[in-house]
Amino acid sequence: MQQHGGPGISAGDSVDPALVPRRTLSSGATMPAIGLGTFGSDHVSAAEVAEVVKGAAAAGYRHFDCASVYRNEAEIGASIEEILCGGIRREDLWITSKLWNDKHGEDDVIASCRQSLSDLGLNYLDLYLVHWPFPNFHLPGCDVTSRSPDARPYIHANYMKTWRKMEELVDMGLVGHIGTSNMTIPKLKLVLRDARIKPAVNEMELHPHFQQPELFHFALENGIQPVGYCPIGSPGRPERDRTSEDTAPTQDPVIVRIAERHRIQPAVVCIKWAVQRGQTPIPFSAHHYRANLEGVMGDPLTDEEMRSIATIDRNCRLIKGQVFLWKEGQMWEDLWDLNGEITPP
Ligand SMILES: NC(=O)c1ccc[n+]([C@@H]2O[C@H](COP(=O)([O-])OP(=O)(O)OC[C@H]3O[C@@H](n4cnc5c(N)ncnc54)[C@H](OP(=O)(O)O)[C@@H]3O)[C@@H](O)[C@H]2O)c1
To answer: Of 70, 221, 255, 321, whose CB has the highest number of CB atoms within 10 Å?
Structure first.
């Protein structure tokens, strides 16, 4: 389906980055309200993702969501170098990376950030996140039934030791902002209480079938920008991340009807909804990244369409985190503190 252009889409078919909506963080800094995800979901190679990054920059993306665990930061770094050589200024880019779960140790945080900086060819990151609140090594690509013998529950004192190192990265000028990912309200409350530098963002799963209204509003009320991963419902996610209860927001009749009305892809409706709602979606796309960016540039969803999408939340978490379970007999729900308290060890 053809994507309709809106204001800010130039004859060269790229979006003027200056016109892309931005989010103001608690520091006063701003970041583009849409970013490109860079997880190839095990089927898009590092080299392909790196090509997509270049194409996306040419299309007008300036925000890239990276992570050491995606095992493509060196390839993306080569693309960033080309992007900068092509005349885009470093200060016009917003680059995020993330600390992986086996690097929470006090001696590992700074070293791990330096490794990402070196791979990405940068001397600072705009944002560095603690990828998951659980310190845990599990083999890359392992499936949801796999359990790590060294899996540990969330221990707040330990998380804060990691966070102190994250704060040090800001003090050192290696990182502009720090943030959390995959957190819950009770965990965030403790971090907000104890942090010297508060999280600027919380990266979390957000799409029309998983709207997380409580956490979303809690974050906004506390000056934390929600960054939404799997904004399209991650149709290309690995088999190991699928269960029979999962639903697809892009197949929801409400989304499909709105897409037909606007003559856009259902996925683009998800992106428009995300940006209009106030989160920052980071869709990955090898083939549709241009349509996704153009989708935030005009032809907004109506209030009535926004309201109708609010009614289709199915509380359907796709990325359940099963590999983080730390003892026998647990359910993945235990990772998400559903009764409002941190699940005891
Ligand atoms: N913090 C965390 O723990 C965490 C967890 C998961 C993901 N993430 C981040 O979030 C990013 C996005 O998540 P995700 O990649 O799992 O899910 P997603 O962005 O919801 O879905 C990506 C998939 O959607 C397809 N797609 C994108 N735009 C489309 C369009 N307009 N029409 C049709 N299909 C479209 C892509 O296909 P094509 O490639 O064919 O276009 C790709 O298969 C990741 O890349 C990663 O950076 C973070």
So the answer is: 255
